[in-house]
Amino acid sequence: MTLHQTPQPKVDTLEEQWYVIDATGYRVGRLATKIAEIIRGKNKPQFTPHMDTGDFVIVINAEKVTLSGNKPNDKLYRRHSGRPGGMKVETFNQLQQRIPERIIEKAVKGMLPKNRLGRQIFQKLKVYSGPEHPHQAQKPITITPSN
């Protein structure tokens, strides 16, 4: 290492921790910012923007997240099939009835880098609509994000 070189964390020495967050009663945006910070690794002292230094996050009870005001009826989620006329639009309430996990996934994905690194980091997010998850073997730590 030369005199003026910033030390980089070694990929071998990075330890990845697993966290569980219960989404019951939290606002979508506030929860998503905390999740994005953890899976990106910004809460660690060895954070490096061009490396994956983050931890895994398991979100349970995704169907119990909320929005403020009249947003449950006004907020729209769009997707497109790629075919002409293939735009599908649905409200927060409709998407929460159909696929509640997608609400948190879309919120977090929008806060990550739009490149290969962002797609790699996004795979560290596991969202489940109920209180059960299949990751007990990883011994996840339960955390509560501040409101």
UniProtKB/TrEMBL annotation:
Q: Which UniProt keywords apply?
A: Ribonucleoprotein, Ribosomal protein
MF GO annotations: mRNA binding; structural constituent of ribosome
Q: Name one Pfam family in it.
A: Ribosomal_L13
Q: Which Gene3D superfamilies match?
A: Ribosomal protein L13
GO BP field: negative regulation of translation; translation
User: What InterPro entries would the database entry show?
Assistant: Ribosomal_uL13 (IPR005822), Ribosomal_uL13_bac-type (IPR005823), Ribosomal_uL13_CS (IPR023563), Ribosomal_uL13_sf (IPR036899)
One cellular component GO annotation, for this chain's record? cytosolic large ribosomal subunit
For this chain, the family text in UniProt reads: Belongs to the universal ribosomal protein uL13 family.
Instruction: State how it assembles.
Output: Part of the 50S ribosomal subunit.
The protein's role, per its UniProt record:
This protein is one of the early assembly proteins of the 50S ribosomal subunit, although it is not seen to bind rRNA by itself. It is important during the early stages of 50S assembly.
Protein name as annotated:
Large ribosomal subunit protein uL13
What organism is this sequence from? Dactylococcopsis salina (strain PCC 8305)
Its lineage opens with: Bacteria, Bacillati, Cyanobacteriota, Cyanophyceae, Nodosilineales
Q: Which gene encodes it?
A: rplM
